[in-house]
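During the first year of the project, the team set up a workflow for recording each protein of interest as an amino acid sequence followed immediately by a discrete structure-token representation. This format lets reviewers and collaborators read both layers of information side by side without switching files. As required by the reporting guidelines, we include two representative entries from the current panel. The first entry is reproduced here exactly as it appears in our internal archive.
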Amino acid sequence: MVDGLSQIAIKKLNKNNFQVWKFRIMNFLMGKGYWEFITGDDTKPPLPESPTQQQIQANKTWHEKIRKVLYWLSVSVSDSMIVHIQDAKSPKQAWNTLVKMYSTNTQARKMQLKQELHNLQKNKMNISDYSIKVKNLANALASIGAPVDDEDLMAVTLNGLEKDYSQFRTSIIVRETFPNFQDLITLLISEEMKVVGTSSNGGSQESVFYSNSNRSRSRGVKISLRGQHESSHGGHHQHEA
């Protein structure tokens, strides 16, 4: 089909991508000259009791276009969504049903994602995985019409760091100009190497300390035993004298 949806990649509508789907399908229909069937501006041509051949053809063409737009909408939504628009008599009715349904769902989804983002903690994740999780939540919010700006992303990212990063967090906060999110992650990856290195060195020094302590205690026991032996030996000779 020359003017089919196969020309472009439109991911099927689901609960997480309404804004992106809406933008793409709207531009597709506008580009094809069919958006008026969604707004209702393209009305059915009149068909009098004794229509001319031209009027019959115009009416037939209009109905074909209606069916075409309904088909495009149906194949651009997930199978579970078909039930909500299968009884629609017009593209406008189908569109309004989807918009109404997803506008309600979007609000709930938006609140859920915002809460997840602001409660996110790095914990045992490395910086790379942590930043990906932050960015994925931000992208999910953007896809439903709630983009997160760089300052908020930076605040969320810093707040989720462990206490090992407290000095780094302070150094960023006191800056006159804040880095953007991508630059912040680059700085954090460098900081992570320092934190991991410090932890490793601390562990090695601790091992050395305990190892030396154990050796000292061992030597002390040997000296003590030798002293006791010598003392006992000496006392034995004194008794013989």
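The second entry, processed by the same pipeline in the following quarter, appears below.
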Amino acid sequence: MAEHPPLRHFGAGLLLGLMAEQTVLFAVPLMVYQVTGSLRYSGLVFALEWLPALLAYPFAGVLADRVGGRNLLQWANVLRAASLGLTVLCCSLAPALTVWALAANGVLLSLLMAPVRMAVERTVPQVAPAERLAHTQSLVQNMELLAQVLGPACAAALVLYSGKLALLGLAAVALLLAAMCWRGLPNAHADSVRQPVLAALGQGWQLLLGNPPIISLALLNFSINLAFACVLSANAFVVSGVFQATDGAFGLINSAAGALGLLNFLLVPWLLTRLSIHQVGALGFAVLCGGILAMGLASGLLGYGASFVLAMAGCTLFNVFNRTQRIKVIPREHLGKVMGPFYLVNLASYPLGGLLSASIGQRYGIQGLILALGLLLSGPGALLFHLTTRRLNAALDTDNPAMEASR
């Protein structure tokens, strides 16, 4: 990374923004559960947080193509910081409205998450040399996992000396610093002639539906994310309610999962010299399926926590494959337009997962629901993974000019 200075600024801004997100993810579920004591409310708030993002992703993709990734991320992070600041003020002045304030903040952060993700997708090809694309995507994944270490660990330590509400204020500061880190990055955008918004959205959907490997990959991501959505929406309830553990244990489990980012930083480049990118994806998929199944069967906090870490390890490896291959089969000049609908399809599972936790998980037990989803992922999901890799191989071996332009 020292050879490419823009990568340092890119990585630093990305890490700060992700740490802010992890701090919010640590504080908000605990605050909601401790105020309401109900898995149902935790699941509903989780679903509510994700629904607006689904509507925002296609528009965010068009914005990323028009204004460039750097500008889009900077403005989104400033607005996210403002939302967190207003939430802290509201909860401080009117504690009885805490759950509603957190839910409203979740809606705003959800809307702004889409521009941030699209900005990262748009910026990676600008800061990464072509021959280092897979390694740069690994860097993005490493930053996410490193944030999972530092975010919950710092939050768990700070909460001993301040309330959880103060953590939201610190997250707002981190988001402002993240915006500053991206000031000098390239900001190329692809649209020389600006299409009407609806025309651009329609073109994005048309390109997505005409790209079989991307359709398969989106459906595979949907399946994986559905299982993880149920896990993430219920984690605070399982740790604090089912296993009667402390806030510190909740932070430790998340930090342990994120600590894999440090190992991944060394492991993925080594794996890429010995395995194909498809083999890395297959290994990750198998490991994440095993971890999800083990979470459903766990009878104690230690087993549940270790299984969660295992599932996150698999997700790490799978996402290197996922992020690298999808960029290769999308024409670069239309990357934002296609990635918006792509995210909408695969992240539609998040509100659905929250609703499943709030309904089926609340009534029949959340671990039984996780086990059932793990079984579906391990059977039909494995067949879908095989179909996806075949379609990707066929697309990357073709002489189609659209495919060649995206390499």
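For the second entry, the following points were noted during internal review. Residues 5 and 271 are 25 Å apart (CA to CA). The chain has one domain: 5-179+197-405. Both points are flagged for discussion at the upcoming steering committee meeting.
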